[in-house]
Specification:
- InterPro entries: DNA-dir_DNA_pol_B (IPR006172), DNA-dir_DNA_pol_B_CS (IPR017964), DNA-dir_DNA_pol_B_exonuc (IPR006133), DNA-dir_DNA_pol_B_multi_dom (IPR006134), DNA/RNA_pol_sf (IPR043502), DNA_pol_B_thumb (IPR042087), DNA_pol_palm_dom_sf (IPR023211), DNA_pol_type-B (IPR050240).
- This is DNA polymerase.
- GO terms for molecular function: 3'-5'-DNA exonuclease activity; 4 iron, 4 sulfur cluster binding; DNA binding; DNA-directed DNA polymerase activity; nucleotide binding; zinc ion binding.
- Its EC number is 2.7.7.7.
- Its cofactor is [4Fe-4S] cluster.
- The chain is an alpha+beta fold.
- About 40% of the residues lie in helices and about 15% in strands.
- The strands form seven sheets. Strands 20, 21, 22, 25, 26, 27, 28 and 29 form an eight-stranded antiparallel sheet that branches. The protein has a seven-stranded mixed sheet with strand order 8-9-3-2-1-7-10.
- Strand 23 and strand 24 form a beta hairpin.
- Helix 5 (about 70-80) packs across helix 7, helix 7 runs parallel beside helix 9 and helix 25 (about 775-795) packs antiparallel against helix 26 (about 800-825).
């Protein structure tokens, strides 16, 4: 293909930008690697030059991150063709972080032959606006000025290694500037610091408890059982619970605060005629019953119940006109006595000579940490002040020694804590230390590494301070020697025991607040702990902040409606938050695959080399350079979680969620959704003197869900206006005062009120109006939504990038929290289920959707002066789609806004219907299944929006998503139904003829249950069994997604037995059941989108006809009959059987042998060319053109393509060999 023909193709109006980018990149990089002729053609042709310049600048360079995948030759060519100053604008405006920027510029610098490009970057005025960017350019100019000549024996550095090297040089430049600053001020400079000096935290300033208060951001709260401290409130004898509050000061110092005096308590209604004088007797009887109930009393506790007092409270569950009543507040010595005491009182006790009396109990099932935080007004990750003269500082020379590794350790009475709301200046975030690490193990051939046999050979570490761009610690611990890595510290050890001991010391020295990585909870940490135990490294398992507490592993199974059933390991790291990124992504995002490679590509558009565990051993057993390659691979695996956390704002978003909901940060990572609402509800309850009952779990009948208006299916070429209710369910709860405290449960309560004092919901439940009592849930929701509105307004005004991220995280947390309140009331297996509230909310929602339809279709008609009769074609939960019969998007938007205002006026505030978007055109397939071009402004569509269609579903193979997506693009964007039909038919033909790459046929499903819990046999479960027999270590576990393809088998074979591992299929040439994919994967989704267009003929056009008649089936190497059959040689030309094994062609084809040979050579050349292109692409991905490809990433389509062409190439070479070394022509 000539250069000009490529350009003509690229600028053709029917080619999408995405396709242009991809086609141009592949073509240009391939051509540049072969010859300079196309480049000369471009440069000499004045007509094509401006077009090429436009394409490169505005089509191919956005986003800049994509350039990191380009070769240096291509970048050099881009730099030659385009205007350098325009490039500067693009890079500065679009680069979202400094890492991308300087990595990209480093590659530009390597691509250039002179300093012109860099000098223009440096001279550009925009650099002066950003000190970091200016520093980057300065470093690159210094690099260029050195003009180091590359020696023949120098190895090529990968892109990632370039980034590490640039980080190192930037640090040196920054350090040099700091030294210059110190010299100018005359301060002393200590040049004797060791290489590891920066591991430790900055030393704390001297603290005087009499004059200095201690202020810190708390990160985690737990409690332990210890001895009371004289002078503190609470129990003074025996053992007591002591709260531990871990945090970080603004100066970066780690702090532990022991909080004394807070004791667990709960409530029961006071018996009739109960007096204050009866409290002592009641305490004595309950205490005796509780002591007798204990199975063992090793601590020799004599006073389990410490106090009983009368308080005035009100049950939150149900409205009572009488208001507050006497309750007994019962204080016990340890939190473990709360459920035990509650159970005894529910079952009944005899007190004061009376008959057996039972008591409903309140707040026995609320976590002790949550009660403490509510009573002290502490919320997750907020700032706390310990005032001067109110605390004891624990020092090594003092009366009480520190028990932790924190730099500052103190003890204080719980009543003396000052908690700050996270608003304004107190919304800041301390310089929290985040450690990301990754380990590599040397497994045996065919066996996944086991800690009792296989050594840990490398541990890579990256440490960053929250708010900073780059890790300030980058190192790798290696077993045996390793070549140096510029930009990273290499620490080599001759013994594994010494390496593990030093790494544990490194953790304790660095003292991270947050520990992250990928699957560290279920692999890295357990493996390290088990390996250290096997090697008897006794100092290793003390990785938390408490000196004498061992880090141990426990098994747990987490089950939730959202995440299914998951098998997890639990590791205690007191004072450190475990932030396993895999767990975060599984919880928060629905992805097809959760491997680090897959998620890195999905979120960062960046791939990594994925080395199989068996190859890692070979690299380790090689030399310094092979171990260096492994170390770089390990370092990148430690770096990627940090990049993902920054990209997804994980730390900020989770901190803001902890602040909004009032729970410890660790709760968000290890517990379900309900605890967040419990915390908020308890805060309001305490404020209004309500108590929360301990509910018994009872599974009742399901209630009717949200309304879905029956869709008027079809393809709409007119603009469709979409009207959405803002925060529908929270708005309903606020508008109608729906709450536990406003629910009328009894006829007596109803008869005490006037009919105007309460409402009856559409589900026949009764609630009092705001004028009688305002509900707590509406109060919580009002606070959340008003706080979100404020955060969004502040976000618009804020200019500081970091503060903007905090505010964005805050408004998102507030939105999620508001929407979760309704779900909490409907969770039947929960802390406080209330069917009356949840079914009333959905009933109001159904009524409102139906009323909206009625209002729109009555008002917007021709009789009222409108051009057409409006028709609501679909309504779903909180939105309606309206066809006003208009022809332009602008008109549809204007009428949509008018209709939203009109409908909103018919509902009680704060319920609000607003216009959100227009779909044009719009394909309505069924309930919750539709697609359309999404317009928020009339000029151009924002995106193609799909709901419930296979483009966004994970339970189909990628072929389905790609096919449906392309067909939708042709239908909605190109408006070409014929082109869409032809494309679908061609894809089906390719599938049946085995022309579809196997990567497109891989289906992934999650193992959500144990084997016995599946009602029927499942394909992915059966495959997991077979994989476990082949290699137990690498087989999928509970919670993993299992990739598989469906293979051909006899007609009577059950579908679940036809699943197979894609790699196993490729290696053994097992045929794919293409008909299965057509019938079970493609046909239904395809017919769904084409039936509204083609009607009843859709099936006959798409699934029948000439394109379905040709089928190609490959011959398997394995199977039941292969052991009993002998494969005979066939003629390469006509495929007839040959008499002799050493011949290539039969007698009939002998005259055409040379022609056949040339044809087979052409096939061989095509395979070689394809293999070379794929190999080069993989080399670019791994960052080096001079090293063997070891990557085995199953999430990368190129991997399967490379495997397939590698096999095809081998088979074709065997065919060529059959012709002999010399052919007698």
């Amino acid at each position: 293909m000539s250069a000009n023909s490529v350009l003509e193709y690229l600028i053709h109006p029917t080619i999408s930008t995405k396709n242009s980018q991809m086609q141009f990149q592949y073509w240009l990089q391939a051509e540049l690697s072969c010859s300079q002729t196309p480049v000369q053609c471009f440069l000499l042709n004045e007509e094509t030059f401006p077009t090429l310049q436009y394409l490169i600048l505005f089509e191919l360079l956005a986003p800049p991150e994509s350039l990191l995948q380009w070769s240096q030759t291509t970048l050099k060519f881009v730099a030659m063709v385009t205007n350098h100053l325009v490039c500067v604008h693009i890079f500065i405006q679009d680069c979202k972080n400094d890492i991308t920027l300087f990595a990209l510029m480093g590659r530009m610098e390597n691509a250039a032959f002179d300093g012109t490009i860099l000098q223009k970057f440096a001279d550009h005025q925009l650099w002066t606006q950003n000190e970091n960017h200016f520093l980057i350019v300065k470093v690159l100019l210094k690099r260029f000025s050195r003009k180091q000549v590359k020696k023949d024996d120098d190895f090529e550095r990968s892109n990632f290694e370039e980034e590490l090297a640039l980080m190192d040089e930037l640090e040196e430049e920054f350090h040099a500037q700091s030294l210059e600053s110190l010299e100018s001020t005359g301060e002393d400079i200590d040049s004797s610091q060791s290489a590891n000096a920066k591991w430790a935290r900055p030393p704390p300033a001297e603290i005087n408890p009499s004059t200095d208060s201690v202020v810190f951001q708390q990160l985690d709260i737990d409690y332990y059982i210890g001895q009371p401290v004289p002078g503190m409130s609470g129990c003074q004898t025996g053992i007591v619970p002591i709260m531990r509050v871990f945090g970080v000061s603004m100066e970066g110092n780690s702090i532990l605060c022991h909080v004394h005096g807070f004791l667990p308590y709960f409530f029961v209604p006071a018996p009739q005629n109960f007096q204050q004088s009866d409290c002592a007797k009641f305490r004595e009887i309950l205490n005796g019953a509780l002591i007798s109930d204990m199975k063992s009393n090793k601590e020799n506790i004599q006073d389990a119940v410490l106090a009983v007092e009368i308080v005035q409270k009100e049950n939150i569950y149900g409205y009572n006109k009488d208001g507050k009543k006497p309750y007994l507040k019962i204080t016990v010595v340890l939190p473990k006595f709360l459920p035990a005491a509650g159970r005894l009182l529910e079952n009944g006790i005899r007190w004061n000579g009376s008959d057996m009396q039972t008591f409903p109990v309140f707040e026995t099932n609320i976590n002790f940490e949550i009660k403490f935080m509510v009573d002290t007004k502490i919320v997750g990750c907020n700032w706390i002040e310990v005032p001067s003269k109110k605390y004891n500082l624990l020092t090594a020379s003092g009366q009480r020694n520190p028990t932790s590794r924190c730099q500052i350790e103190l003890e204080v009475d719980w009543k003396n804590l000052i908690s700050y709301e996270p608003e304004g200046d107190w919304s800041k975030i301390a310089p929290v230390r985040i450690l990301s690490f990754d380990i590599e193990c040397a497994g045996r051939k065919g066996i996944f590494p086991e800690p009792n046999h296989d050594p840990v050979i490398q541990i890579a570490n990256m440490v960053i301070r929250q708010g900073e761009k780059d890790p300030f610690i980058r190192n790798v611990f290696t077993l045996n020697s390793c070549a140096p890595i510029i930009g990273s510290q290499v620490l080599s050890y001759q013994s594994e025991q010494q390496m593990l001991k030093e790494w544990a010391d490194f953790i304790r020295t660095v003292d991270p607040d947050i520990v992250t990585g990928y699957n560290i909870q279920n692999f890295d940490f357990p493996y390290l702990l088990n390996r250290a135990a096997h090697l008897k490294v006794t100092s290793f398992p003390f990785l938390g902040r408490m000196k004498n507490i061992r880090t141990v592993i426990k098994d747990s199974i987490l089950q939730s409606r959202q995440m299914g059933k998951r098998q997890n390991k639990v590791i205690n790291l007191e004072g450190r938050i475990q932030f396993d990124l895999l767990q975060i992504l599984v919880r928060d995002y629905k992805l097809r695959s959760y491997t680090l490679n897959a998620v890195s590509y999905h979120f960062l558009q960046e791939q990594k080399e994925d080395v199989q565990h068996s190859i890692i051993t070979d690299l380790q057993n090689g030399n310094d350079q092979t171990r260096r390659r492994l170390a770089v691979y390990c370092l990148k695996d430690a770096m990627l979680p940090l990049r993902l956390m920054e990209k997804l704002m994980c730390v900020i978003n989770y901190m803001e969620m902890a602040r909004v909901t009032g729970v410890p940060l660790s709760y968000l990572l290890s517990r379900g959704q309900q605890i967040k609402v419990v915390s908020q509800l308890l805060r309001k309850a305490v404020e209004h003197d309500f108590v929360i009952p301990t509910m018994k779990i009872e599974v009742g009948d399901d209630f009717t869900g949200a309304t879905v208006i029956e869709p008027v299916k079809g393809y709409y070429s007119d603009p469709i206006s979409t009207l959405d209710f803002t925060s529908l369910y929270p708005s309903i709860m606020m508008a109608h005062n729906l709450c536990y405290s406003t629910l009328l449960q009894s006829v007596v309560a109803r008869n005490q009120l006037d009919p105007d004092d309460f409402i009856k919901t559409p589900s026949e439940n009764l609630f009092v109006k705001k004028s009688v009592r305002k509900g707590l849930l509406p109060e919580i929701l009002e606070h959340l939504l008003s706080a979100r509105k404020k955060a969004k307004n502040d976000l618009k005004k804020e200019t500081d990038p970091f503060k903007k991220k905090v505010l964005d995280g805050r408004q998102l947390a507030l939105k999620i929290s508001a929407n979760s309140v309704y779900g909490f009331t409907g969770a039947q297996v929960g802390k406080l289920p209330c069917l009356a509230i949840s079914q009333s909310v959905t009933a109001f929602g159904r009524m409102m959707i139906e009323k909206t339809k009625e209002l729109v279709e009555k008002k917007y008609i021709t009789e009222n002066g409108y051009p057409h009769n409006a028709k609501v074609i679909y309504g779903d939960t909180d939105s309606v789609m309206v066809n006003f019969g208009l022809k332009t998007v602008k008109e549809a938007m204007e009428l949509g806004r008018e209709a939203a205002t009109y409908v909103s006026s018919h509902f009680e505030k704060p319920i609000n219907l607003e216009f959100e978007k227009v779909y044009y055109p719009y394909l309505l397939i069924n309930k919750k299944r539709y697609a359309g071009l999404y317009f928020t402004k009339p000029e151009i569509h924002d995106k193609m929006d799909c709901k419930g269609i296979e483009t966004v579903r994970r339970d189909n193979c990628p072929l389905v998503a790609n096919l449906i997506n392309t067909c939708l693009e042709k239908l909605l964007i190109d408006r070409d139904p014929k082109g869409a039909t032809e494309y679908a038919k061609q894809t089906i033909a390719d599938l049946l003829c085995n022309r579809i790459d196997i990567s497109q046929l891989v289906i992934t499903k999650e193992l959500t249950k144990t084997d016995k819990e599946y009602a029927a046999k499942q394909a992915h479960v059966e495959l997991a069994h077979r994989m476990k027999k082949r290699d137990p270590g690498s087989a999928p576990n509970l919670g993993d997604r299992v990739p598989y393809v469906i293979i051909a088998a006899s007609k009577k074979t059950a579908a679940y037995l036809k699943s197979e591992d894609p790699i196993y299929v490729l290696e053994n040439n097992i045929p794919i059941d293409t008909q299965y994919y057509l019938d079970n994967q493609i046909s239904k989704p395809l017919l769904r989108i084409f039936e509204p267009i083609l009607g009843e003929k859709a099936e006959s056009i798409l699934l029948c006809g000439d394109h379905t008649r040709t089928k190609i089936v490959v011959t398997s190497k394995i199977g039941a009959l292969t052991a009993f059959t002998k494969k005979k040689a066939t003629c390469v030309g006509c495929r007839s059987l040959l008499d002799r094994e050493d011949e290539a062609v039969c007698a009939h084809c002998k005259p055409k042998e040379s022609e056949i040979y040339q044809t087979e050579i052409a096939y061989l050349n095509s395979f070689e060319e394809k293999f070379a292109r794929l190999w080069t692409e993989c080399q670019r991905c791994q960052g080096s053109l001079h090293e063997e490809i070891l990557c085995t990433s199953r999430d990368c389509p190129i991997f399967y393509m490379r495997k397939k062409v590698q096999k095809d190439l081998g088979d074709q070479e065997k065919v060529i060999k059959r012709f002999g070394s010399v052919i007698n022509w």
